[in-house]
Amino acid sequence: MIKVLIADDHAVVRRGLAQIMDDEPDLAVAAEARTAGEVLHAVRENDIDILILDIAMPGGGGLEVLKQLQDLRPDLPTLVLSVYAEKQYAVRAMKAGAAGYLTKDSIPEELVDAIRCVARGERYITPAVTDLLATRVRGGAAPSHQELSNREFQVMCMLTQGKTVSDIADDLKLSAKTISTYRARILKKLHLETTADIIRYALQHDLVD
């Protein structure tokens, strides 16, 4: 039996994933979590074989959780299941320790296959992620956004969605001042001046759908 921890801040998503597991004789939901802190607590307190992790979560976010898991449970396979397209977060997630990356529009059968694959100790890499990794290996001049930290990149993506500094602060449970600081760092690293410039940059580099 593969014991799964579902980590997502939306109850409807957790319920839907649990229903998918219920239909599979070899999968069982061992625990659920809705914040980064709850994920780490659940990992400590439960016998978990695999973690299904969202990228956007209160209290730190999926990339920060992956980083902390390297110390807490480096052997725990993690499958990232995100609303964000592969081109936005997949390479960063794999680099942070994820064993696979799927978007939430994937069909249930693919999700189940990915869970079993990752639970066996393998990596689950979709064709889209394969292309991204191949592009990275080929090298060439790296775009400026690759110099952003994971948190800066997350804030950039949220800005491109039309969210204000206050919106992002609420979503990430951080102060508006902290988000403004991240925004200033993003502008400096990308050599830009305004949020509108960030949105144009993201469009030019195919970072938004």
Describe the structure.
The chain is α/β, with parallel strands linked by helices. The protein folds into two domains: 2-137, Response regulator (Rossmann fold); 144-204, Orthogonal Bundle (Arc Repressor Mutant, subunit A), CATH 1.10.10. The protein is built from ten helices and five strands; from the N terminus they run E-H-E-H-E-H-E-H-E-H-H-H-H-H-H. The longest helix is centred in the C-terminal third of the chain and has 15 residues, at 176-190. The model has no long low-confidence stretch (mean pLDDT 88).
Total number of beta strands: 5
Rounded to the nearest angstrom, the radius of gyration is: 17 Å
Number of helices: 10
Order of helices and strands: EHEHEHEHEHHHHHH
Query: Strands of the biggest beta sheet: in what spatial order?
Result: 2-1-3-4-5
CATH topology of the largest domain: Rossmann fold
- Which regions are unreliable across 5 or more consecutive residues at pLDDT < 50? none
The SS-based structural class is: alpha/beta
CATH architecture of the largest domain: 3-Layer(aba) Sandwich
Shape: globular
N- and C-termini, Cα separation: 37 Å
Helices and strands in order:
Layout: E1 2-7, H1 11-22, E2 27-33, H2 36-45, E3 50-53, H3 62-72, E4 78-82, H4 86-96, E5 100-103, H5 108-119, H6 127-138, H7 150-160, H8 165-172, H9 176-190, H10 195-204
Parallel strand pairs: 1-2, 1-3, 3-4, 4-5
Helix pairs in contact: 2-3, 4-6, 7-9, 7-10, 8-9
